[in-house]
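protein-glutamate methylesterase
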Amino acid sequence: MSNPPIKVMIAADSALLRPKNSADVMIAAGSSTAIAGSTDQIVAIGASTGGTQALELVLRRLPTSCRGMVIVQHMPERFTAMLAQRLNEICQIEVREACNGDRVCAGRALIAPGNKHMLLRRSGTHYLVEVLDGPLVNRHKPSVDVLFRSVAKYAGANALGIILTGMGDDGARGLKEMRDSGARTIAQDEASCVVFGMPKEAIKHGGAEQVMPLDQIPGALLAFGRSSAALGVP
């Protein structure tokens, strides 16, 4: 692939000046407390550089019957609301910037607000999100690792984790925690990434069960189900 544009390189240099806290500052690591018999399943997606276009491609191909989704896209405050509004206008599913206490349900995608962390929580057999302030994690807020760790902890095998194009390593450890908890996991392949940073690190850490081109991810997402033996495109 061609080298990333200058503005991407400048953003990377700026990111290096930010704190490199781990997800421990927001949520403790621990064994999954997911309810094995829950009928609710969720999809957790993390993205950064190039992610807005990647998310558009994925979400536009999903019907309203798809699993509920929680998404972290590295963006500043206010820009995530604009992204959610735009995607909501062009997608069949409901896309919105998450508010504290929003329920994760079929046909809905919740995007973490810029400058806030978003965590998954469980309420009975259902899932909702918690939107919190806090320190930067992996130099980001929202952080993919924070979301993925909470999904590993509260959804476990009821979840599918997807890491898309992006710079750095945010989400790599969290995706491995999801896989270790029984979740299915996917990383976008190098050829279809704008920046093969986050997926590459996730693969290196052993978090990616499958690696696939971006245009195959919507089909894999739709194939995800309790009875699915694989994540291949139907």
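thats it. The CA atoms of residues 51 and 65 lie 23 Å apart. Strands lie at 42-47, 68-73, 94-97, 103-104, 108-111, 117-123, 126-132, 159-163, 184-188, 210-212. bye
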